[in-house]
Specification:
Layout: E1 2-10, E2 16-18, E3 21-23, E4 27-35, E5 40-43, E6 46-52, E7 57-65, E8 71-78, E9 88-92, E10 99-101, E11 106-113, E12 124-132, E13 139-149
Parallel strand pairs: 6-13
Antiparallel strand pairs: 1-4, 2-3, 5-7, 7-11, 8-10, 8-12, 9-11, 12-13
Amino acid sequence: MVTAAFALLLACGDTTTSGDSATSDTDLATTTDTAPAAGIAMTPTLLELSTSNGEPATGSYTISSTGDAALELTDIAYGDAGVDLPGVIMWMTQGPLPVSIPAGSTSTLSIEWTPDRPGDTTPLETDLRVTSNAAEDPVYTVQLTGTNSAR
């Protein structure tokens, strides 16, 4: 949460002078106002895909907008910068990025992984980074793994 304090000057009358002292009907009141902030949570934190003979494997993450402001997703990336993971396809239920998830709502990020070759047993292991306007976690990271067994 982002908190801001505001001082309000309330003028409620005239200032009068009596002798050596001045009196006033003016009060100084302080209020605290909390600005809406976006928050993010994802489940599961580890998505494990499993397939055999190179068939596609699918799974999904649920992305929750946990703050009191809309969550704006601007980027979803996996692996190291500049490294491509062949066979990985991602899509959001709302369509392409950027995506807005209202406060208190959820969305689904679906993943499909198809190994390069039917007999390829090289596992898929990567981090998935979701960039958003979340106040505390602007880059939220979960894990994605996959195995392909040859039959």
